[in-house]
Amino acid sequence: MNREKRRTAERLHTSANNVDDGLMKKIGSVLSTLQEKLHRHKSSHDSASHQSVTAPAAPPSGRDRNYTGQLFFEYLLVVSLRKKSHEEGYEPHITYQFPKRDVMRRSQREEEEKCMKAAHLFCFPEGINWAPLTEYRSETFSFVLTEVDGSRRNGYCRRLLPDGKAARIPEAYCIISRVACFGLFSKIFDEVEKRRRVSKAMIYPFMQSLREAPLPAPGNTVKITSFIPDSGTEIISLTRPVQSWLEHVDFQTLFRCLTDEQVLLVFAATVMERRIVFVSEELSTLSQVLHAVAALLYPFVWQHTFISIIPEVLIDVCAAPTPYLLGVQKNMLELITDRNDLLIVDLSTEAKNTFICRIGDEESILPNKLKEELLLALSARKHNTCTEDLNRLVSEEFLSFFIQTVGHVSQHVKRCGNTRQFQRKSFLKSVQHKSHLDFIKLFIHTQMFDVFLQEEETQPNPNGVFQKKLSECHGRKKREKTKTRWVQSFVV
Asked: Terminus of the chain with fewer CB atoms < 10 Å: N or C?
């Protein structure tokens, strides 16, 4: 994609935190075919459902957020597949909602109904082709719903096969929450599934206790008391990770599916804000890998379309000319017909070609010296490293990449009258390593850099993780220089 075409595409998109009606109309016109397809799919999934699904969804923000005082979740949905009355196949259907709709105000019911119509599509994105099963391995995955006003909800889903001996259809338990914390909700689903084996009625008292509990601050724990017949009263401990900006991330799956070198190629394409499709048979793999790739960008935030799992009815979103990160199930790969300027990554372990389609310049985007440093650091990790340790190691190394390339950006945001403005020329002149310059010149034209810069100009956060790491880096360099001078003077 050439520079002019690239900037035109960027102007069609908007930050998930600054979506306004005018820009949404532009995006709606680009993706108008999706609305028509949704309408054909099911008349009740009209514009409300389309807005929730096709608005440019962003992954959880890289900026530090404090969710203390919020609810753990907004509601729990049980989504089942029911046979179509006059056609072949099945369609997803919400069979239970907690809390129940009759306790909501009318305006709240209407708002939630829009979200639910979109949510159940993601619980069974494969479409209508299902058959009763006797065996099915439960899986957990997540998705993001973005409304037209830019507000986001996270959907966490566990699909499982109800108990029984005869062939039966899987059902899905879906939790909708403003909180982005995959590990936390995965543990909650473990409790849900354990109670489901006893009785579906056992789930709801547990969820009520959870809904009444305060969401703990990062690093803290909340204890939930729950009763199960034959087991008695149990106390469930739920702990949030210390690093709140990593609590939705598990890098294990990313590095299981891709080699370190392949991860860097994907990272290079992502920082250049390209169109990237990840392919896998497993929904859990898709959602975990896409969130992990987005997390590599911290402290920057992916500003374009982000859909970790594409329902079949929305596969045409792959034809959008604007940047995106999309997850597509492997059986829908042949439906992606337009593959120009596209990176398609096959996450299957048996894949002969990991990169089904690529532009070809991915190896030359990142500065060579920084690539070598990243590969060396990643190769030092242990294979049995726990999730939290791996998350810390990987995030710190990629954070170091941005510190070394654009870490000096805040020094070149100067006050001009009543505003603060970025001094681009002085910023580029002060780049310490000239071998980084080509990359930096490209990166500062991305929308994620623009949004980061706007926040630096209007509301800089000196206590954020990025600034703290930057200060640590400067302090370390200062100590190293002092030590070098001391050694040299001692030798002399």
From this structure: C
